[in-house]
Amino acid sequence: MNLSNLQPAEGSVHREGKRVGRGQGSGKGGTSTRGHKGAKSRSGFSHKIGFEGGQMPLQRRVPKFGFKNFNRKEYVGINLSKLQELVDAGRIADKVDVETLVQLHIVKKNDLVKILGGGELKAKLKISVHKFTAGAKAAIEAVGGEAVTL
Known about the structure:
Elements: H1 58-61, E1 75-79, H2 80-88, E2 95-97, H3 98-103, E3 112-116, E4 126-129, E5 131-132, H4 134-142, E6 146-149
Parallel strand pairs: 1-3, 2-4, 3-5, 4-6
C-alpha cells in the first residue's frame, strides 16, 4: 500500500448527487435542472396534498354519501368455539379476562372484546369481558360458568 492507491473503506463515502447551480460548465448551471418558469422552478415551492394544478381535485369530484359515526365502538368478536379450543389446548383453565386474551395474542390491549355465541362451550369458565351476546351469555351460564360484563 502507498499514497497512490489509498481509498476510503467500502460504504463510508456517500456521494451527494448532482452539484447544481455551479455554472454553465457543469452542465447543470442556469436553471439548476428546474426548467423555465412555473411554480416548481421557484424557491420555497410546496404544494398541498391532492393539488392538481388548479383542476378540481379527485377528492372533491367524487360524490360523498352515507354517514360515518365517529363515536362508534368497534368490538373484537370471539366465538365460544375459540374459547373451547383454548381450553382443549390447555392454554386457559377456569378464568378468562381481557389480560388473558392479550397474553395469548388474541386481542390487543386497547381492544374492546365481545363474546359471540358461535360454536359450543363445554368448559365451566368465569369470563370477564366488555360485552356478551344473549346466546353466548345463556350458553356460558348453561354449563355453570359466569359471564361478567366490565
